[in-house]
Amino acid sequence: MTQLTQQATWQALAQHSKTLPHMRELFSNDPKRFDNMSAKACGLLLDYSKNRASNETLSLLFKLAKESQLESKIKAMFAGDIINNTEQRAVLHTALRAPAEQVINLDGNNIVAEVQQTLAKMGEFVNSVTSGDWLGYTGKTITDVVSIGIGGSFLGPKIVSQALRPYWTGKLNCHFVANVDGTSITEKLKNLDPQTTLFVMSSKSFGTQETLTNTLTAKEWFFKQGAAQADVAKHFVAVSSNVEKATEFGIDANNIFPMWDWVGGRYSLWSAIGLPIALLIGMDNFRELLAGAHAMDEHFANTPLENNMPVIMGLFSLWYGNFFNAQSHVVLTYDHYLRGLPAYFQQLDMESNGKGVTLNGTDVDYSTGPIIWGGEGTNGQHAYHQLLHQGTALVPADFIMPLNSHNPVGEHHVQLASNCFGQTQALMQGRTYDEALAELSHSKLDDEQKQLIAKHKVMPGNKPSNTILMDKLTPTTLGSLIALYEHRTFVQGAIWQINSFDQWGVELGKLLGNDVLDRLTADKQANELDSSSNSLINLFRQGKI
Ligand code: F6P
What lines the ligand 1 site, CB under 6 Å? Predict the structure, then answer.
């Protein structure tokens, strides 16, 4: 396989990147630029016109995608081919949201049937808890759910529940515990009643230290409050692909919701990992979430690359990372309910594409996954937008905003929109020195000071952004939006020829952490590691610096 950077199209893109005019010029040359560079699908509108791109840019990027066999790689994923080559697994989170009548055969089994069985089990459980049929060990109904999990077993449930707060049935409160820091679970358990609390323990591997430790602490708390071992079945359920270990841990076999090894942790919210979401918003809304994601799957699988939203977004992200040295990508959600989404996309993208070797183990000689960060607008404008406008780093941005708020109070939403759109405009057009100087023409500053301040007020502009709009934030549009980013991540990994679905990089830290744990608790000082590690361990052992 020719090294990507040796390919003619890659080299043509590199040359082309030096020839593009400022976006101001691109817009003035084409009054219909928005019409030509926007796409609508699955209840979302993508405005990608504020990108450093001409028609030639787009055709080169799509050519690169085609030469990277992107279309056949997309088909391979949906077909259940073993594309996660290092773990010898299929990648079929799309099957989790496939319609019941669809057939996807894997190893001779129609996995959609298994998915539907689990969804039915989830539905029965959710209805039982929210209807009050499910009673605790003293006969009381459940009022609080504590979701214990980390990474994809935490971020999906937490952030989707937060995003869909307007859809909560009101029957349950939910608390999320992830970190092994005892403060997290202690703070969450403080005001809970074991008689009315349900623990959902989520761990695909059932081997994650944080989740096991937090669940053990929860059980100890449960017993300390007067409950007995026999009562565990009424207050602890588990979601895992390791049913055997979950059973050994003491979870009643009937309370274990299975998941499969062809679902990556960061792609798992659509599985029973999403149980906390379903408990909060109800099974009907959870199925709407799945339907929205499925609609985006269909779009991704069946739309020509040139109109394919995940392809367009993935290609632009690659364009800036590989040809303009952009090291990060910012996601700005102009909706308070979506404030957690950047953190979700961090794991999704960085754990998928933070890789340094290709599928066949060759070191890459090009950048791969960028640093994903962000937060809610308009808060970011008062925190880090300065850097976006005038910093030396190029940071491509995604702005996400529903056109209609769930809370239409006063002038808030129109002001939110004015900020969102104003920011994308300012990033694109910037402010020239002459414009800055003209703005100072009536100030009392002398000419020398005006010239100095004008220099400081210049904004280069030409800062790229995508804007994603939806009529309203609903389970369906949220499902489509998250699936859009899942496939955007896939597109980049496919072109970079990396495995986006394993995560060997997280193993070493865990292994060394276990060794350090032994030294922290040993009966002698640490002295066999590097001087820093020895010292840090011994300082912890003495409990003071
Ligand atoms: O960070 C590594 C990782 O395996 C993630 O991919 C995963 O989402 C998280 O840890 C939790 O894993 P598990 O669900 O197996 O506890």
Answer: 150-153, 203-205, 208, 211, 265-266, 351, 503, 506
Instruction: Tell me how far apart the alpha carbons of residues 206 and 249 are, in angstroms, rounded to a whole number.
Output: 9
The order of strands in the sheet holding 236-240 is 173-177, 144-148, 197-202, 236-240, 256-258
Q: What is the DSSP letter of 229?
A: G
Q: In what order do the strands lie in the sheet with 44-47?
A: 38-41, 44-47, 465-472, 397-404, 328-333, 371-376
Question: Atom 6 of ligand 1 has which residue's CA nearest to it?
Answer: 265
Instruction: Return the H-helix or E-strand segment holding 71.
Output: helix 70-79
Helix (H, G, I), strand (E, B) or coil at 419: helix
| 527 Cβ neighbours under 8 A, 6+ residues apart | 534
CB 398 within 8 A of CB 332: yes
Model pLDDT for residues 310-356, shown as the tens digit of each residue? 999 999 999 999 999 999 999 999 999 999 999 999 999 999 999 99
Is 457 catalytic? The answer is no
Q: Find residue 375's DSSP bridge partners.
A: 332
Between CA 292 and CA 269 the distance in angstroms is 13
**pLDDT tens digits for range 486-545:** 999 999 999 999 999 999 999 999 899 999 999 999 999 999 999 999 999 999 999 999
CA 344 to centroid of chain Cα atoms: 3
The whole-number pLDDT of residue 249 equals: 86
How do 109-110 and 105-106 pair as beta strands?
Answer: antiparallel
CA of 495 to the centre of ligand 1 (A): 25
Q: What is the pLDDT of residues 378-420, one digit of tens each?
A: 999 999 999 999 999 999 999 999 999 999 999 999 999 999 9
Q: What is the DSSP string of 469-482?
A: EEEE--HHHHHHHH
pTM: 0.98
Walk me through the domains of the chain, giving residue ranges and CATH numbers: 3-66+303-429+463-496 (3.40.50.10490), 94-287 (3.40.50.10490), 505-542 (1.10.1390)
Burial class from Cβ neighbours inside 10 Å (0-12, 13-18, 19+) for residue 274 reads: buried
- Ligand 1 pocket test, pick from 93, 204, 348, 352 with the greatest ligand atom count within 8 Å of Cβ, gives 204
DSSP 264: -
